[in-house]
Amino acid sequence: MGHLLCELAVRLEVSGIGSGQAYDLPMTQEQLGDAVGITAVHVNRSLKSLARDGLINQVGRRISFPNWNRLKDAVGFNARYLYVRPPSQWGSQTPS
């Protein structure tokens, strides 16, 4: 789930919709579950676990990343496979 949240951050930033450090989640928990092959209940548990571990903050549909590098390391995310070049240089606390 964390990997998908990272990918969405990068894709939304590249498209000019998100800021990289925070965005409004464009999908329901059911849709997120369909994307990663788990139930909506497990999506909810995963999001709560990521929040409890301090990797994400979630208020309603708004997702933010207190420490982008820590989240990336925890979920093994690397944006190279997306073949996108973000409009910004992705500083140390923002997606890369």
Describe it for me?
By secondary structure, this protein is mainly alpha-helical. The chain has 4 helices and 3 strands. A 3-stranded antiparallel beta sheet has the order 1-3-2, covered by helices on one side. Helix 2 packs across helix 3. It is globular, with a radius of gyration of 12 Å. The chain starts with a helix and ends in a 21-residue tail after the last helix.
Unreliable spans: 89-96
- Give average pLDDT, whole number: 86
Helix content estimate: 40-55%
What is the molecular shape?
globular
- Helical element count? 4
Structural class: mainly alpha
The SSE string, one letter per element, is: HEHHEEH
Strand content: 5-15%
Arrangement of strands in the largest sheet: 1-3-2
Write the layout of secondary structure elements.
Blueprint: H1 2-15, E1 22-24, H2 29-36, H3 40-52, E2 57-59, E3 62-64, H4 68-75
Antiparallel strand pairs: 1-3, 2-3
Helix pairs in contact: 2-3
Keywords:
single chain, 96 residues, mainly alpha, 4 helices, 9% strand
Describe what is shown at a glance:
With about 100 residues, the protein is mostly helical. About 45% of the residues lie in helices and about 10% in strands. Helix 2 (about 30-35) crosses helix 3.
